[in-house]
Design a protein that fits this description.
This protein has one domain. It is 76% helix and 0% strand. It is built from 4 helices and no strands. The N and C termini lie far apart (53 Å).
Length: 127
C-alpha cells in the first residue's frame, strides 16, 4: 500500500468522523429547539409543559459515552500501523510513535465508553 492510499484512508476516517459529529450536533440542536418551542407554546397557552419535555432537556445536557472517538482513533491507529509497516528508514519511528499514541487513545476512549465514569449506577436516582 503506497503512502497516498494510507494518507487518503486517514483523511477519510477523520472526515467521516467530523461529518458524523456535526450531524449529531445538528440533530441535538433541533431536538432542544423543538422542546423549547413546546415549552414556550404551553406557557403562552397558560398551561404547564409535559414533564417528559423537561426530562428530555435534562438528559440532553448529560455527557455521552465516547463511541465516535473510539471509532476515529481506532481508524487512525490502524492507518498509522499500516503506514509503519510500509515505511522505510527514519519514517518508521515517526509512524510507530503516532500509531502507538492513537492506539492507546482508542483504548482509553473504549474504557471510558464501557465504564461511563461519573454516571449514576441507578438512573432513577439521577435527579
Amino acid at each position: 500500500m503506497d503512502e497516498g492510499r494510507v494518507a487518503a484512508f486517514i483523511f477519510a476516517a477523520v472526515a467521516v468522523a467530523m461529518i458524523g459529529q456535526g450531524w449529531m450536533s445538528l440533530l441535538e440542536h433541533q431536538r432542544r429547539k423543538q422542546a423549547m418551542d413546546v415549552i414556550k407554546a404551553a406557557l403562552q397557552a397558560g398551561k404547564e409543559a409535559p414533564p417528559i419535555i423537561y426530562e428530555q432537556l435534562r438528559s440532553a445536557g448529560r455527557s455521552k459515552p465516547p463511541w465516535s472517538e473510539v471509532v476515529v482513533f481506532t481508524a487512525l491507529g490502524f492507518g498509522f500501523w499500516i503506514a509503519y509497516a510500509n515505511a522505510e528508514g527514519d519514517q518508521r519511528i515517526s509512524f510507530l510513535v503516532v500509531a502507538a499514541i492513537m492506539t492507546i487513545t482508542a483504548l482509553g476512549c473504549l474504557g471510558l465508553a464501557i465504564m461511563r465514569p461519573g454516571e449514576p449506577k441507578d438512573r432513577n436516582d439521577a435527579e
